[in-house]
Automatic annotation (TrEMBL):
CDD domains: KDPG_aldolase. It is an enzyme of class 4 (lyase). Gene3D superfamilies: Aldolase class I (3.20.20.70). The lineage of its organism: Bacteria, Pseudomonadati, Pseudomonadota, Alphaproteobacteria, Hyphomicrobiales. This is 2-dehydro-3-deoxy-phosphogluconate aldolase. GO terms for molecular function: 2-dehydro-3-deoxy-phosphogluconate aldolase activity. Pathway: Carbohydrate acid metabolism; 2-dehydro-3-deoxy-D-gluconate degradation; D-glyceraldehyde 3-phosphate and pyruvate from 2-dehydro-3-deoxy-D-gluconate: step 2/2. Keywords: Carbohydrate metabolism, Lyase, Schiff base.
Length: 217
C-alpha cells in the first residue's frame, strides 16, 4: 500500500463512520438542495451522495457544502476522470461511481480524494483491488445477486468492504447491514423524487429518523 492510498483509505474510513446509511440524492432544482440536506441531517443522516444525473447537481452540491456544514457531501455517478476532477473542485469529501473503467481507476488511484468505485462482478472487484481500492460500491445490488452474492464474494475476497446500492429500502436495509463485509448502504427511499418535488421536508426527516432507528433496533 502506498502512502497515498493509505491516506485515502484512512479518510474514507473516517467518513464512513458517519454512516451507515447514505441517501442517494437526485436533485432537479438547486433551490431544493439546502432544505433537503437540512431535513436529512435533522433526521440523523449526515453522509450524502449527490448524483451527477441532472444539470442542477453540481450547483446543488456546492450549495449544500457551503450552507450545511453538518452534511458530509459525496458526489455520485462519477463516470469519467473529468467527473472526479469536478467532484474535487466542488469541495466534495468523497466520490462514488456505479462502475469503473480502467481510466477512471487510474485517475482515482492518483488522487487524494476518497473514492468508492462501483463493481458488480468478481472480475470488476479484482480490478478495483489491483488499483488499491478495498471499499467498493456493489451496484446494482439486488439485481447483481443481492445478499447471497456478497456472502459468496466474502470467501475469495476477505479484504473487500462493500457499500451496496440499488434495490435497498426500508424493509431490507438492516439485512444488508448485518453482513460483516458491508460498511454502509446506499438508498433513495429516504429522499424520493416525489417527496423532493413536493418539498415534503418534514416527511423526509421522519423517514430518515425511522431509518436510523431501524438499524439501531
Amino acid at each position: 500500500m502506498t502512502s497515498l492510498s493509505g491516506s485515502r483509505d484512512k479518510k474514507l474510513a473516517d467518513i464512513l463512520r458517519a454512516g451507515p446509511i447514505v441517501p442517494v440524492i437526485t436533485l432537479e432544482r438547486v433551490d431544493d438542495a439546502v432544505p433537503l440536506a437540512r431535513a436529512l441531517v435533522a433526521g440523523g443522516l449526515r453522509l450524502l451522495e449527490i448524483t451527477l444525473r441532472t444539470p442542477a447537481a453540481a450547483d446543488s452540491a456546492a450549495a449544500i457544502i457551503q450552507e450545511v456544514p453538518e452534511a458530509i457531501v459525496g458526489i455520485g455517478t462519477v463516470l469519467t476522470p473529468r467527473d472526479l476532477e469536478r467532484a474535487q473542485a466542488l469541495g466534495a469529501r468523497y466520490a462514488l461511481s456505479p462502475g469503473a473503467t480502467p481510466a477512471l481507476l487510474e485517475a482515482a488511484a492518483g488522487s487524494e480524494m476518497p473514492f468508492i468505485p462501483g463493481i458488480a462482478t468478481a472480475s470488476e472487484l479484482m480490478g478495483a483491488l489491483e488499483h488499491g481500492f478495498q471499499t467498493v460500491k456493489f451496484f446494482p445490488a439486488v439485481a447483481s445477486g443481492g445478499i447471497p452474492a456478497l456472502k459468496a464474494l466474502a470467501g475469495p475476497f476477505p479484504q473487500a468492504r462493500f457499500c451496496p446500492t440499488g434495490g435497498i429500502d426500508e424493509k431490507n436495509a438492516r439485512d444488508w447491514l448485518t453482513l460483516p463485509n458491508v460498511v454502509a448502504i446506499g438508498g433513495s427511499w429516504v429522499c424520493q423524487t416525489s417527496d423532493i418535488r413536493a418539498k415534503a421536508w418534514n416527511d423526509i426527516t421522519a423517514k430518515a429518523e425511522r431509518a436510523v432507528m431501524s438499524i439501531k433496533a
